[in-house]
Each structure stands twice: as structure tokens, then as C-alpha cells.
Amino acid sequence: MGDMMNDVLQATQIVIEQALRRLGYGDDMVDLLKEPMRLLTVRIPVRMDDGTTKVFTGYRAQHNDAVGPTKGGVRFHPGVTEKEVKALSIWMSLKCGIADLPYGGGKGGIICDPRKMSFRELERLSRGYVRAISQLVGPTKDIPAPDVMTNSQIMAWMMDEYSRIREFDSPGFITGKPIVLGGSKGRETATARGVVIMIHEALRLKGIDINGARIVIQGFGNAGSYLAKFMHEAGARVIGISDVNGALYNEEGLDIPYLLDRRDSFGNVTNLFPNTIGNEQLLELECDVLVPAAIENQITEENADRIRASIIVEAANGPTTLEATRIITDRGVLLIPDVLASAGGVIVSYFEWVQNNQGYYWDEKEIDEKLRLMMIRGFENVYDIHLTRKIDMRLAAYMAGVRKMAEAVRFRGWV
Ligand SMILES: NC(=O)C1=CN([C@@H]2O[C@H](COP(=O)(O)OP(=O)(O)OC[C@H]3O[C@@H](n4cnc5c(N)ncnc54)[C@H](O)[C@@H]3O)[C@@H](O)[C@H]2O)C=CC1
Ligand SMILES: O=C(O)CCC(=O)C(=O)O
Asked: According to UniProt, where does the site described as Important for catalysis lie (predicted)?
């Protein structure tokens, strides 16, 4: 098949089609759901601190709103592309479907490097993006959230800008906000919490004790760093972590509290240490659980044979290509795919939106318990489809994730 599958949109479309065919749908449904219904491209002029103006390109993709408003994060990254944003919006639909949230998928991105921008430049970019997409989004239309290199401060600026445009306070326009602006308890850690629940399920199936289990995590940002913290607290040995600059390894377990303390707001920490290994070596370490928690296309047909983990839990979106999925599944590695494993973020975002709508806020215990129940239910459903249909976990997750949307499309009479 080759790794033309590194094209994340094309890979997603292949599996969406397989899932819909197995659910009994025909060409019309495949044609509709293999692409987002809407994609807005915007150009955002930003006054830089030195007085010049720089024009940034941004996107917002809305996969399908048959189930309800679309929902999904906004990514700030130099590598953002139209295809990537489209694929990410489809993955959001699948996550919402698996978790049974009343949403379709959406996703946004801006081609930029926030590591090279000042605080005020980032504010102007965030506000400019909202002005550019404001016609298309809103608390009952499309609800953004954080993703790679965006955070609660950026959500706060975006919410403030939207509220100014609409002339009323609109906390439900965006999730992942600071708590004082209507953010939810537990959203900051939600993606990692969801991954932890999946790791527990996977370890149970493989008969491995969490105590002393060897965990390797690629990426030390929002998802990866909190995951390292929770795994460390649960008694596991986090033997490897990495960021964009390199990786750290210690067979006895890394000093996670120390590393958490030293990381910067973009999830960089390895640059502080001289003896780092490379990201390629990190992925190939012998371990019980490997968690890619950075970017796409990290496990490919090129390195899949060398992966020595018993379990792979995808915290990142799209870290494993289709060919690599086949190789590792054939080798008996248990794969918990992204659209299931990383659904914790959007689940607690949903709780945030519900709380904003009702104006009554829950405590963290309630959030964690509700999150746990939804993640476990999603896992059991996907695992059951995997067993009964004798298909790999990714296809099973796609079947679970797209079913409700296809039914909603059919009831609305769209195809
Ligand atoms: N933040 C959220 O709520 C959610 C995030 N995700 C996914 O999790 C992944 C990570 O997202 P966040 O933690 O939010 O991003 P982040 O921006 O907070 O952190 C990203 C981390 O990945 C590292 N990284 C970037 N490129 C890398 C590379 N080539 N090799 C190794 N490490 C690299 C960065 O140095 C940083 O440590 C993404 O795929 C994102 O879409 C999924 C669900 C929700
Ligand atoms: O919290 C959300 O709404 C979306 C999070 C997200 O972008 C993702 O799951 O990839």
C-alpha cells in the first residue's frame, strides 16, 4: 500500500469509507462524510511589535452538523495545512460519536509559530482569527477549544473578542477557558485523564500491573506532561519522554515531578539536559505502553516493525499511519486509537459548554466521574465491535464513531 497514507486526510477517508460500508451505507453517504461540509480559509493581518504587518493564514473546517453544532480545537503551528485541518475535523466527529456527545466535528488552525511571537502579538492574532471566522462559529453553531500550542489564555482572548462582536457575554462560544471566565474544572487535565483510563483498560486486558509498568511518552505538552504526572502518581515507571528537541530515557524511571517543574509553556524540557536520545529511538524503546502525544505520522511503515511496546495508546491525533496500524496489529500490539483514546478533552469541553449554558458549575470529582463513565463506555463499545466483527481497533472505533452521524444524516433526509 505504501505510505501515501502519510496523507492524513486520505487515510481518514479510506477508513471512513470502510466503516460506512460495513454499516451498510452506500456511495451517497460516503461521498458526504468523507469531506467536511464547510471549510473557511481566512487571511489575518496582525500588527507586529516592530510596527510591520504580517498576514497569517487560518482555517476552520466543519465536518458535519447533522448531530448538532460542530466542536473542536484550534491549532497554532507552522505545519498547519488545509488537509490536516480537514482530517482533524473528521476525527473530531468520530470522537464525539464514540463519546455520544451532541456534536459534529470541527477544527481550526493557523499557520504560525507561537514560540517566536510575543504575548501581545499572539493576542492580536487570536482576536483577528475570531473576527475572521465569527460568521461561521458560535455557541450553537461551532465551538472551538485548545489544541497544539493554544491554551486557556488564547481561549480567553477569543471568547472576549467574540463577546465584543456579539455584544453579549458568550462563555459558551469556546471551551478550555480559564476557570474564572467560565472554564470547567478538570478541562486542563482532561485529555491526559482520558488516556489514563484507556491505559488502565489496556493493561487489564494484557494482564500487566500498573505498578512498575514501563511507560514511554512522546510529547510533553498539555496531553503528554499531565499523562506523565498521572502515570508517575499511579506507580508506573515513566522511562522515556520527549519533546520537539529530543528525548530523555532512564530505565529506572525519570524524575517526573522535577521535569514537570522545569518544562516551559510549550512543553519543552529536554533542551535543559545534555544526554538526550532522539525521538526515533524513544519510539523504539522496549516498554509496556507507548503513548504518542505530539503530532501526526510518528509510527509509520518505516519504524512499525521496530516498535517494542505491548500497548500503544494514541493521545495525539493521527500519530500512526494505516500501514503501520496493520503491521503493529498483526504483531499483536494492542492499539487504542486516537479517536477513542484522546476523547477526554472534548468530553470535558462538552461538560464546560453544558455548565456555561446552565450557569451552574460542577466540582472536579463530578467531572472526573462523568468523564470516566463516558470513556469506559466508549472503550467497551469499540472493543466489542473489534471482537465481534474481527476488525482492527481503528476500524472498530470509526464504526462506533460514525454510526450516530450517519443515522442523523439519514433522518434529516440529506442523503
Ligand atoms: N490539548 C488537548 O485538549 C488535546 C490534544 N490532543 C492531541 O494531542 C497532541 C498533543 O497536543 P497538546 O499536548 O495539546 O499540544 P502541546 O502544544 O501542549 O504539546 C505538544 C508537545 O509535543 C512536542 N512535539 C511537537 N513536535 C514534536 C515532534 N516532532 N517530536 C516529538 N515531540 C514533538 C512539543 O515539544 C510538546 O512537548 C496533538 O496531536 C493534539 O491534537 C488530542 C485531544 C485533545
Ligand atoms: O475540547 C475540544 O473541543 C476539542 C479538543 C480537540 O481539539 C481534540 O480532541 O483534538
From this structure: 147
